[in-house]
Automatic annotation (TrEMBL):
Gene Ontology molecular-function annotations: glyceraldehyde-3-phosphate dehydrogenase (NAD+) (phosphorylating) activity; NAD binding; peptidyl-cysteine S-nitrosylase activity
Pathway info: Carbohydrate degradation; glycolysis; pyruvate from D-glyceraldehyde 3-phosphate: step 1/5
Name of this chain's protein: Glyceraldehyde-3-phosphate dehydrogenase
UniProt xrefs under Pfam families: Gp_dh_C, Gp_dh_N
Keyword Heme: no
Chemical reaction(s) catalysed: S-nitroso-L-cysteinyl-[GAPDH] + L-cysteinyl-[protein] = L-cysteinyl-[GAPDH] + S-nitroso-L-cysteinyl-[protein]; D-glyceraldehyde 3-phosphate + phosphate + NAD(+) = (2R)-3-phospho-glyceroyl phosphate + NADH + H(+)
GO cellular component terms listed in the entry, alphabetical order: cytoskeleton; cytosol; nucleus
Entry EC no(s): 1.2.1.12
Provenance organism: Gasterosteus aculeatus aculeatus (three-spined stickleback)
Length: 306
């Protein structure tokens, strides 16, 4: 059993905790959040508008700890990561999910409190970046701080409001389709160096609370029939990438993937081919729950290399 601490009890922090509590291989022993008190943690964990009420065991505050089923979690309220006593709580790994401490230097502050390794749940300017099923085998046990990429989307407004330089982002999320930039294409280049400079992308923010879709348009160097592409993806989904990659020929829509623990579910019926060199591929993912399970998977992979 790997013992982890979580810094930041926001969307990702709470869902990584849910993933750990439902998976049984990762134990959350400590949570730090300077802005959320213990009673509010109980409420926020138990009730989730997107993923529903937590039903796998009791959630309560007991003796100053957050109790979720069999997990008795020490709670800290430190603003400076260097002051969090992870070691005293028994946390060997820390999931840094505040979105604030995203460089190696800033995230390394967790090591001062007794943590052995840190996983940053956001794009990092300098930390090695890993995606399970893609490049996780390149992880080396000498690495103390790593990142597993995730896009931040909790900044949208419920109604029109002020928004720094990105004026469009200030428009009401439930009323609009909003074009936005995305760091995903740049992240792909970091994780798969062979694609660096060959890929770009943008996003449309749409009025749904969860689930995203990738619409990938590709010009192929070698010709390939769309049916052959489907066969290769299906074989991977049923073989080496089972549990991470999915494949469906059903007539699905976004809500069908809410709560899906896989990272990418290829929609065979939605893709199209102009010819054997030019195809559009469509794949769905729960950008919260699938990602949170991969964070736990990465921690387990790192633990296996100790």
């Amino acid at each position: 059993m790997v013992k982890i601490g979580i810094n930041g009890f926001g969307r990702i922090g709470r869902l990584v905790t849910r993933a750990a509590a439902s998976g049984g291989k990762v134990e959350v022993v400590a949570i730090n959040d300077p802005f959320i008190d213990l009673e509010y943690m109980v409420y926020m964990f138990k009730y989730d508008s997107t993923h529903g009420v937590w039903k796998l065991g009791e959630v309560k505050a007991d003796g100053g700890k957050l109790v979720i089923g069999n997990m008795h979690i020490t709670v800290f309220h430190e603003k400076d990561p260097a002051n969090i006593k992870w070691g005293d709580a028994g946390a060997d790994y820390v999931v840094e999910s505040t979105g604030v401490f995203t460089t190696i230097e800033k995230a390394s502050a967790h090591l001062k409190g007794g943590a052995k390794r840190v996983v940053i749940s956001a794009p990092s300017a300098d930390a090695p970046m890993f995606v399970m099923g893609v490049n996780h085998e390149k992880y080396d046990s000498s690495m103390k701080v790593v990142s597993t990429v995730h896009a931040i989307t909790a900044t949208q407004k419920t109604v029109d409001g002020p928004s720094g330089k990105l004026w469009r982002d200030g428009r009401g999320a439930s009323q609009n389709i909003i074009p936005a930039s995305t760091g995903a294409a740049k992240a792909v280049g970091k994780v798969v160096p062979e694609l660096n400079g060959k890929l770009t992308g943008m996003a449309f923010r749409v009025p749904t609370p969860n689930v995203s879709v990738v619409d990938l348009t590709v010009r192929l160097e070698k010709p390939a029939k769309y049916d052959d592409i489907k066969k290769v993806i299906k074989a991977a989904a049923e073989g080496p990438m089972k549990g991470i990659l999915g494949y469906t020929e059903d007539q699905v829509v976004s809500t069908d993937f809410n709560g899906d623990t896989r990272s990418s579910i290829f929609d065979a019926g939605a893709g199209i081919a102009l010819n054997d060199h030019f195809v559009k591929l469509v794949s769905w993912y729960d950008n919260e729950f699938g990602y949170s399970h991969r964070v736990c998977d990465l921690v387990l992979h790192m633990f296996s290399k100790e």
